[in-house]
Task: structure prediction
Amino acid sequence: MKASAANHSMSPQQARAPTKAGVRRQPDLTRQQLLQCAFDEIHRSGFRAASLDAILESSGVTKGALYHHFGSKTALGYAVVDEVVRPWVEALWKPILEAGNVIDAALALCRELARARSEQALQYGCPFNNLINEMSPLDRGFRERLQHILHDWHEGVIVGIRRGQANGSVRKDVDAEQVSALIISTAEGSVGLAKAKQSPAFFDAAMRGLEAYLESLRPLRAAP
Amino acid sequence: MKASAANHSMSPQQARAPTKAGVRRQPDLTRQQLLQCAFDEIHRSGFRAASLDAILESSGVTKGALYHHFGSKTALGYAVVDEVVRPWVEALWKPILEAGNVIDAALALCRELARARSEQALQYGCPFNNLINEMSPLDRGFRERLQHILHDWHEGVIVGIRRGQANGSVRKDVDAEQVSALIISTAEGSVGLAKAKQSPAFFDAAMRGLEAYLESLRPLRAAP
DNA sequence: ACAACGACATACTAGGCGGTATGTAATCGG
DNA sequence: CCGATTACATACCGCCTAGTATGTCGTTGT
Result:
């Protein structure tokens, strides 16, 4: 949902020195640069249309180096999912589990997302959702990895809701699994559809709707 | 959401006669076959990865014929959106507007979708959502067409909800625009995410959650 | 110091892609 | 019946892409 990736990015060409003679080698850094630039390129173009040459140019790495670190484009894609996409997704929802009141935490995230919606995020959407849509039907390796990330997310939210039901911050007459699936679907669906509109109006409306839904999950104790 | 397209499909090769000599020409039919086969191929592979040769083979049409009817691959894609995707999406939601009770009609559609979820639909997702995710950031022509379809859908549901509020079948204290955005986001989001899971469990949970949400939109007249 | 291995760099290849040039047969207006 | 035009069919082209072969230079263990 967030733009991200912009954080790490650097002016592409200065990423690494003019090479050629007497350069210090930093295989770990090279690998990280490849992963990050690949993530950005995949975010913009999708995995299949992501050009290795473009990744090479933006990272300042050569083809020989790439194929030294990754056996194939597919292997690079898997590594991006495992080492960039997964931590990125988990950083989004895991904090909510730690919060005392799940609904408050979720509402805060909604508002944060609605506020921080960058041009880039609205245009290119959620990298996780993009990859699911593009690659899940086509490649088992992608599907299993993405499925695992989604599974953890889904189960995590379920646990959070159940905990809320236990400590009295969430209504007890709702089905945690259904609520979790609805929340996640709405979140990913709205960023996806926002790509069609050039304005954030639709996304904002969906977020406001989701906020109202979250409010409705609070236990109604009118008279104490 | 629905598998669709399977309806029209025919055994690819027998689609048209062995051609060669003395064939009747049917330009309209040829065009329709191209559109339908292109829709199927795009549904499976996405637009950019859709191979013209594959479309040609499945439709039994030659490249010369294709470029006679459509000036480019992009033009073919636009025509698919205008003449196949748009009617397909509208056929899904327009009936709901005609119903007396919107909530009942929407619930019926939810259950219908959850029941009719075919292998293909779960695997390849919603053609409309797929195209938005893939092409909206990349091509203005696609974006404007898809945006228009989404806009009509969104506005249509808003009108339906307002009408429901007017005739007393929907609570008056909800914001129609937000509710519409949430419903559509959830629907498209859940089919999208279902592609990651190979099982329909997540999609079903989201649908049940949406049903519960729709129920909550009914006016609560406990004691008449 | 030197060998061996790791970390790159460069040049090249094969295949698939959208698109085009050109030919030919059916259809149609007069 | 006859040109003109529509509706195809076939062969080909140039580009871009993932991938590879091979060479070279740092780095490291002994």
Summary: Chain B touches chain A through 52 residues (CB under 8 Å). Residues 21-25, 51-53, 63-64, 67, 72-73 of chain B lie near DNA strand C (CB under 10 Å from a C1'). The longest helix of chain B spans residues 140-166. The radius of gyration of chain B is 20 Å.
